[in-house]
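Need tokens for this chain, all 305 residues.
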Amino acid sequence: MRKNEKIQIIIDENPNLKYEKKSKFYFLMLPFIWLLTIWVAIKKKIFGPNLKTNTLWFDGLSSFAREVKDNATRWRALDIVYNHPIYQDKNFIDIKITEFWWHNLLSTRATRNRLRLLKHILKNEIQNYLNQYPEVRIISVASGSAQGMIEVMKDLKEKPIKALFLDLDISALEYSKKLAQKAKIEDKIIFVNKSAKELENIAKEFPPHIVEVVGFLMYRPKEKAINLVQRIYRILVPSGVLIISQDNYIAERFFLYFVVNWPIIFRSPNEFTEILINGGFNPKHCKIIYEPLKMHGIAICKKII
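Here are the structure tokens for all 305 residues:
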């Protein structure tokens, strides 16, 4: 990154988005979270990384926590975090511990905030392009359940929008197809069961105005992250926009790694900025917006030639 190059950083506090704030009990929770993290780290050091139960107080007694842990890094874990757990046939202790984690973890609250922010950004960017083009084309890379994209497209159902969902996990595409059918927008979406390696070939037939990458960069090492951004820059139409997320460092990061089995590459705003600029985007045409808990940042970068 060249000296003095900066990207505008914004902490969004839009009251209309009804963001979740930090739990009032969070300062009491942190010591408990650290103790659980240390305990599980010691257990894994002694017995190996693949424990059946990491700790009684997380995946041992909470079916929600157990399912999130078992599906960490996959679309199903996010689906559980986004949407309230189902309590059918659950016992009292399971429900109470599930409620405790679902409502009080900063990471779960921040992740739901990301969904709110993403939908707001997507809707604004789509509206901008609808004023300029007869049709707006969007590619969602590693699309997962694509809940945010589908909800935005449902709200703009009558608009000329086409989306392509790209994911290597066929179960993610099957689930997003069900959501699209329920929203009555399935005819507006192409579902592609391939990896991001196919982006260039896909873009030849479907040149995108917007490329959305949410929840994928945090699994890519620095050089691969830069390479992905470079490739997206090349396939965007002139004045096209990349919408991409990255997780910022939080106190829960070791808890997520050891207790939740969720290995995330966290990056500071400066590290995120470096990837975007080295990926080819001019910092003058980028901004990074963080939700109020400052865990999730979403960058909006325009390709200006």
